[in-house]
Amino acid sequence: MTLLRSSSDPDTLSLKTAARAAPAATRSRLKPWHWAPYLFISPFFILFGVFGLFPLLFSLVTAFTSFDPYAGLASMKFIGLDNFDFAFGDEWFWKSLWNTLWLGLVSGAPQHLVAIPLAYFIHTAFKRWRNAMLGAYFLPYITSTVAIALIFTTLFSTDFGVINVAISYLHKIPLIGSIFPAENVNWLGRREYVKPAVAMVVFWRYVGFNTVLYLAALQTIPKDLYEAATMDGATRWQQFRFITLPLLKPMMFFGVTLSVIGGLQLFEEPFVIAGIRGGTDQAAMTTAMYMYRTAFEFNEWGTASAISWMLFICIAVLTWLTNRAFARGGMDS
Fold this sequence. Notes:
- By secondary structure, this protein is mainly alpha-helical.
- Helix 5 (130-142) packs across helix 8 and helix 13 runs antiparallel to helix 14.
- The chain starts with 9 loop residues before the first helix and ends in a 5-residue tail after the last helix.
- The radius of gyration is 30 Å and the shape is globular.
- The protein has helices at residues 10-29, 36-62, 82-88, 91-125, 130-142, 145-155, 162-171, 191-218, 223-231, 236-247, 249-264, 268-274, 287-296, 301-328, and strands at residues 65-66, 77-78.
- The chain has a domain at 84-143 and 191-327: Orthogonal Bundle (MetI-like fold), CATH 1.10.3720.
- The longest helix has 35 residues, at 91-125.
- The chain has 14 helices and two strands.
C-alpha cells in the first residue's frame, strides 16, 4: 500500500521551499567578474556597430532617399528607386563600370599568371635566400600609394621618363624597332594610354602579394609526391602541371576572389596616377572614383549610396561566378 504525502506535509513543504530558493541562489553566485569576458569583447562589437553596421544600414536607407548632409537629417526625403534609375541611365556610371572591369581584368589576370610560376621558381631554386627574395617582391604591397604615384609619375613622364627612354632605344633595334613608336608616349595625357599605365601600377603592386600566397601553398605540398613522380620519370613540367597546379586550386580560388573584390573596388592607384577625374575623357575613372565624385563633388549622396549598392551586387555576382568556375573545375582535385 502506497502512502501519498499531502501538500501540508513538512518534508514536502521544505522541498518546495528549496526549489524556489534555487534560482535566487544561482543568481547570487553570479559575481561581477563573471561578466568580464563579455566586457573584454564588447569594444569590438561597439566599434563594429558604430563604424561598420550603422554606416552600412544608413547607406542602404540613403540609397532610397534624397539627402543633403549639409542640411541635416531633415532634408532626407524618400524617393523610392529614383537614385537607381538615374544611375542606370547615367552614361558616366556605365563608363566607370567598364573602366573598372577593364582594369580589374588587365591588371588582375597577369598577377596570377606571373605569381604562380614565380612562386614555384622561388620555392625550387632558392633555399637560403628565399625570404629575401620574397621580401623584395612583397615590398610594393606595403609601400605607400603616394610614394608609388610619385615614382610612376616620373617613370611615365613624357619628356624624361625612363619608360620612354627605353622605348626610344628599342625603336632603334632593326627587327623589333617597328613595334615601338618613334616619338615619346604621353602616358598620362592621352586616353588610350592612361588605362594601361594604371594597370601596370596595379600589377606591379599586387603581384608580390599573390606570390606570397602561392609560395605558402607550395610549402604545404608533400615532397613525397615530387619524389615519386621523379622516380616514375616525370619531367619538371609534368610535375608542375599534374601535381603543383591541381593542389594549388584552393589557393588560386582564394587569390582570384581577392583580385575580383579588390579590382572592382579600385580607387587609390587611378586616383593618385590619373587624378580624381580619371585622366583625359575619364579614361581611368573607376566606379569607386565616380561614386566619390557623386557624393563629394556633385553632392548627390543618395545616388552615391545607390551606386555603392549596385557595385556590391556586381562584386557578389562575380564572386559567385568565380566560385562556380573553380567548383566546376574540381577545387578539391
